[in-house]
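Problem 12. The chain below contains 169 residues. Write out its predicted structure in token notation.
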Amino acid sequence: MQIKGELFFILFISVITAAQSQETLADLLGKYNSHSVPYISPEELAQQSKQEALLLLDVRDKIEFEVSHIPKAIHLGSDNSASHHKILSSTKKDAPIVVYCSVGVRSEKMGLRLEKMGFNNVKNLYGGIFEWKNKGYSVVDSAGKDTQNVHVFSKKWKKWLKSGTAVLE
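Solution.
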């Protein structure tokens, strides 16, 4: 009986551990986001950015942006700085705006702030720059050159980057 109980316990722990490690991106975003800012997929963003002018705002920290960012993105950061005012004061309230961060959590918060400021065409990049890179789209470094490097924000978020080279400085 002792062995059966131990085997059951080991099997139970293995199943629980496997279930926890199989958390999906949808699970993650469901945990941290309210989904109040509509998502745009990497595929939709790639297509839309070819067809129309849109404001692509990277809300990650400056060091993350300098390691790599989506081409044509403007660094906005997540704080309320003078650069926010400068960038946003010349933007029409109905202009198409896409915000992104590492996976889409910080960018949802920024999207909500933009909506409170009166911007009415804001979308959040589903899965952020990680999903953009995971889908095979290019990122550029601070010199504008293609790179495989992506800043992963923290060890916790690193697992969501499946393509490219994880950087954590």
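Discussion. The chain has one domain: 24-167. Students who got a different answer should revisit the alignment rule from Section 12.3.
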